[in-house]
């Protein structure tokens, strides 16, 4: 998951990464207002499905962070401006201003949010993706943009911690306590929280709850190192019940997000010891 974020650090892959960034910037299909349409793999995992006129929270993490890092590494102003625009556009259409949570997606044809379901993993893409974006683009964003993104991030984290399950993780439908507790989305939220604490953009008052969450996440790793209770690939749906019935399977992104959560926790803990 997101191997592209490290691929460009290897000299032998720099040309390939640059070609990908140029494709994202210049040729990827766009929605109304110039948003990046989200593609998903087909049932055979060899084909691609185009989600016409749709914005998904997933794109912020899976595509936009790559474009931002390539912009920073190559001092490519146009790529950087595009990455910032994409993040702001996704926030514009996915953020629910009543709850400060994010919908899974937006459809420009229907002009709706597919039932406005607050999906755990979708919110983790934003909760981790926004501070990662700020870290990547540090010193390159206008102060007003940085301030806005920090406010959005802080509001979301505040909302998320008000919806924790009894074991300090999160339900797959965040505001439905009858939906199962889901590990990959919980891991992404934990990773984003510890990164925000490490960066100093999140109040220290979240530290205690975040530490309880990381302990609960450790309990989701079995004796073989497999992260349990991870929801399988999840198509967007206007029916909240659909999300509650997605199978739980070992998934690569479940492993990856859990590793990220542990890494961000260790980075934060190490920095606290040296204050």
Task: Please provide a written account of the structure.
This protein is mostly helical and 275 residues long. The protein has one domain: Glycosyltransferase, CATH 1.50.10.10. The protein is built from ten helices and four strands. The protein has helices spanning 4-7, 14-26, 57-74, 77-94, 120-136, 143-161, 183-199, 207-218, 240-244, 252-273; strands at 39-41, 48-50, 54-56, 105-107. A two-stranded antiparallel sheet has the order 1-2. It has a two-stranded antiparallel ribbon with strand order 3-4. It starts with a helix and ends with a helix.
Characterize this entry briefly.
The protein has a single domain (4-273), classed as Glycosyltransferase (Alpha/alpha barrel). It has 10 helices and 4 strands. It has helices at 4-7, 14-26, 57-74, 77-94, 120-136, 143-161, 183-199, 207-218, 240-244, 252-273, and strands at 39-41, 48-50, 54-56, 105-107.
Number of helices: 10
- Record field, number of beta strands: 4
SSE string, helix = H, strand = E?
A: HHEEEHHEHHHHHH
What is the CA-CA span between the terminal residues? 33 Å
Protein name: Glycoside hydrolase family 88 protein
Organism: Lacticaseibacillus paracasei
Pfam family, one: Glyco_hydro_88
Keywords: Hydrolase
For the structure shown, list the relevant keywords.
275 residues; mainly alpha; Glycosyltransferase; two-stranded antiparallel ribbon; Glyco_hydro_88; PolySaccharide_Degr_Enz; hydrolase activity; 6hp_glycosidase-like_sf; hydrolase
